Amino acid sequence: MQNGPSKFWCNWLTFVIIGIALFSMMLLVLPGVTHEFFNWIAFFGHQPSALNAPEVVGYLSFVYGIIGAVMLGWSLVFLYVVRKPFQAGERWAWYALAVPFTVWFIADSLHSVVSGFWPNAVFNMGFFVLFGIPLLATYTKFKVDETKAIS
Hints:
This protein has six helices and no strands. The protein is mainly α. It has one domain. α2 packs across α3 (54-88) and α4 (91-114) runs antiparallel to α5.
């Protein structure tokens, strides 16, 4: 495919991915801020006192750091895909963004709801919308006419 999606959608996705990368770095370097943020989401601002124990704070910092590192790596791969093959209109690049993002959204949101932390699923909706709009808007650009592909 020679013509990729509009620059607008590529820039939109780039902006969202950079935002995710910055959030990921916050999980690594500002654990106190992210603890407060997730406590606000999970407990509506009323953090259980058990979460203040030094061992718990240390463990949560470790877990949030691991999550941040994984998300940072994930976002950098997405950034490369958007800025190179997606922008060039390579069909596989659309799926390389849409499939893992959708799997993450479903798995993370379902786990959040089943675990009783449904506000995290609501938080996930923001990311889903920010990614979903440009992916839906560009879908037809990447769709291959199967009759032309066969001949």
